[in-house]
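PROTEIN ENTRY
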Amino acid sequence: MNKKPYRPGPKRPSNATRPRGRNRKMSGKNEQDTNLINDEIRASEVRLVGDNVEQGIYPIEEALKIAEGQELDLILIAPQAEPPVCRVMDYQKFKFQQRKHAKEQKAKSTKLVVKEIRFGPQTDEHDYNFKLKHAIGFLKEGAKVKSYVFFKGRSILFKEQGEVLLLRFANDLEEYGKLDQMPVLEGKRMTIMLSPKKPGKKKEAKDAPEGGTAVQQDDNTPVEE
């Protein structure tokens, strides 16, 4: 097989500017990181911000020297600004703060879950315990529990009995949730709302203090109000 003759291409001019390399320490930067740092920054001048520098606009070479003099990194935080904005700080600390902020934002945006549990004004003991077990599970999962007694027809005459039932329910869930509101009658519903307690902050049930009020259950067992 005949080989094609080698024809060398044009030589690079000796005075051509070489692209910056990655000679500066990357402080553990990996390919997934999106912020440019140190010698990766291509702008001719940048605006420095932060507590450890005199804020202002600097040529990129001077900004790099400032960061190097403090044994820190020059981090590009606003590439679209004119000129681009950089911060002088340790890159690992910068990434830690970013992860912490993202975690806080995610926690704030977490959708609130509310589970509803319905009672009748004359709920029997078996049904009560069944729904109590479900409520404990919901609160452990971090959901709120909205419990209500529905009064149908003439059963509204038993609204006091429904209130006692809801207060008993809140008392039995004291270890897992806190009562956000006392029973409120709205139309044919009497409602309470319970929020889950944070782990490690459970309280033991206590007897009613001396002089305190107590509500009587259907079986005449006192329950702290």
Notes: Residues 13 and 28 are 35 Å apart (CA to CA).
